[in-house]
Amino acid sequence: MVATLTQGVLVTIIGEAFLQYRLVNLLTKFKVSGYTIIPAQGAGSHGKRMGDVAGYNTNIEIKTIVDLETTTQLLESLKPLQANHALIAFQQKVEGLFD
Amino acid sequence: MVATLTQGVLVTIIGEAFLQYRLVNLLTKFKVSGYTIIPAQGAGSHGKRMGDVAGYNTNIEIKTIVDLETTTQLLESLKPLQANHALIAFQQKVEGLFD
Amino acid sequence: MVATLTQGVLVTIIGEAFLQYRLVNLLTKFKVSGYTIIPAQGAGSHGKRMGDVAGYNTNIEIKTIVDLETTTQLLESLKPLQANHALIAFQQKVEGLFD
């Protein structure tokens, strides 16, 4: 039996790769305990800019597990970026082994 | 406070890499607003074909966020592919910042 | 209509890349029907060792879909690894097309 599963919110941010530095800075500002970055390709109308581009873009997927309050603040901080950049973010409740 | 989180269904499709073109065509047919593709390795009995192969395969993971009705139709469209190809797909409700 | 969606638990393990062999062995021991491996970068205090390292690490993300009982046993088996390695794991209920 796993007696002590931790509860948290998995936040996934998918955006243009050149936003990586800015997004990592943002996560650092929120003092997240860790994050994972995965290179990705994307297409579609996710955000304004991506809709302008034909074919694939070079994207990144950044994941972090935080508490619910941080999730809300983090998503709020991402909103202004969506005005000018292809960026989506979503949250999911998870439980498991993490800080 | 994030007043306006959008509700949606995250659909994740994991399959053999050579299915990428066909899967993207399918997503385009469903007029998804965007999708993300991540290269992956896989092993196991996911689907018929993957069970035949020893060791790793070159796979892709494709993610898209759609509404519940599209999810159902999309999964239904994927079912025939499972007969001959290593493919899994699953859905999760998410909320966040996306179209 | 998708009449027959399967229920399962998506287990995501994120850890240092050199743990890949050991983690795959563990999954094999649990006779999982399949798994997906994605290369990733990570940073932060996820686990003891990662906190010691400045900057990025080479990580892997391993995903598998299992039943609830296997999830519990799998997470329990991962706990000892967390003592000496940067490793997180979390579970999410999913439904879809998989064995």
- Could you give the distance between the termini of chain A? 19 Å
Q: Give the overall shape of chain A, derived from the CA principal axes.
A: globular
Rg from alpha-carbon coordinates of chain A: 14 Å
How does the major sheet of chain A shape up? 4 strands, antiparallel
Share of helix among residues of chain A?
Answer: 25-40%
Mean pLDDT of chain A: 86
Question: Which regions of chain A contain 5 or more consecutive residues with pLDDT less than 50?
Answer: 46-55
Number of strands of chain A: 4
| Oligomer description | homotrimer
Greatest interface and its participating residue counts: A-B, 28 and 22 residues
Strand coverage percent of chain A = 35-45%
The secondary structure category of chain A is alpha+beta
Strand order of the largest sheet of chain A: 2-3-1-4
Which H/E pattern describes the elements of chain A?
Answer: EHEHEHE
Helix count from the secondary structure assignment of chain A: 3
